[in-house]
Amino acid sequence: MTVLEQPGSYRPTPPPAWQPRTDPTPLLPDPEPFRLLGTDAAADLDPELLRRLYGQLVRGRRYNTQATALTRQGRLAVYPSSTGQEACEVAAALVLQEQDWLFPSYRDTLAAVARGLDPVQALTLLRGDWHTGYDPHEHRVAPLCTPLATQLPHAVGLAHAARLKGDDVVALAMVGDGGTSEGDFHEALNFAAVWQAPVVFLVQNNGFAISVPLAKQTAAPSLAHKAVGYGMPGRLVDGNDAAAVHQVLSEAMRRARSGGGPTLVEAVTYRIEAHTNADDATRYRTDTEVEMWRAHDPIVLLERELTGRKLLDEAGMEAERQAAERMAADLRERMNQDPVLDPMDLFTHVYAEQTVQLREQADRLRAELAAAEELSPGHQEGTQR
Ligand SMILES: Cc1ncc(C[n+]2csc(CCOP(=O)(O)OP(=O)(O)O)c2C)c(N)n1
Ligand SMILES: [Mg+2]
Fold this sequence. Notes:
The chain folds into two domains: 311 residues, 3-Layer(aba) Sandwich (Rossmann fold), CATH 3.40.50; 48 residues, no CATH class. The model has no long low-confidence stretch (mean pLDDT 93). Helix 1 packs antiparallel against helix 12, helix 2 packs parallel to helix 10 and helix 6 runs parallel beside helix 7. The relative contact order is 0.14. The strands form two sheets. Strands 1-2-3-7-6 form a five-stranded parallel β-sheet, sandwiched between helices. It has 385 residues and is α/β, with parallel strands linked by helices. The chain contains 14 helices and seven strands. Thiamine diphosphate binds next to strand 4. Magnesium ion binds next to strand 4.
């Protein structure tokens, strides 16, 4: 006889009446994306901040076009362009304090560069040269993450650990709209809210996950609404309005830093280019749609605000464009140099102790390289990609 079958031995207590532990209302995002540029509130914005954002946007756009050109010249294996999304990239970098951490996805090279990373080093992974390619600790930028959303639990772990140690560190983690369907996204948000970890999640909703439009990705009212289910506030912001993204992220960072817990920010933006240079976007979206978004370009929006308020003139814009050209010329020149790479490095730093399988593969590669060297001596000098 089981315990449940023994009369009187098992008396389930009735469950307590269910009641919400927090009022969800303050957690809910606004129905419309928050905007600043072109509104009355923009008059209160700091002109210096607006000029700084503008300079970074112009440089960021130029970085994107240069990196895309490098893929066509065979100098870069792949580039997921953030053209059209520069406001999110730049604002994410600028809201961080020195000691904070950025957790970017593969599309966020620009945020890493705006954070201070060397533009060439930031492209190492996308060039196919090396794992990561930079020291994550130097600028507190985690590796550009290709497996969707896996950077989010890492960010939560780092932020939680910092809090336990009493360090003043906030982690800002970036992810795409498609990434919000991954298990890692849900696990990260849940842990972050339960632990009240000092972390800010920035979802760049650029309309697509490769060819999958948002409507096929989720039935939620907005991605920002997902925050409420975990018990953190969700904010919805116009992702092409650099001032608005900067303000919303700054508020979320402040909240996290002061022990107020995590925030999920959805920035509504658009991926102007194809997913990467390996994708043909005309197969799943119309030119009309792209043109509509070009009219809402982040640089145009900010330029309009700055020139309208006489905070920037043609000479000022030209100076920014020239600075961007210099950066692009330097990037082009350095990316055109052939790096000397040792293919055997492929096996270094994967495990502290090499596995049997990796040892076998390393031996095979070593033999192949030796055979190739015998056939054509000196062939492996210089570029080996
Ligand atoms: C775990 C995992 N599954 C699938 C992929 C393949 N993949 C690469 S990018 C991508 C779409 C991601 O879209 P989104 O999150 O919206 O980011 P976006 O590319 O638009 O910035 C997919 C499915 C991957 N990289 N990782
Ligand atoms: Mg997307």
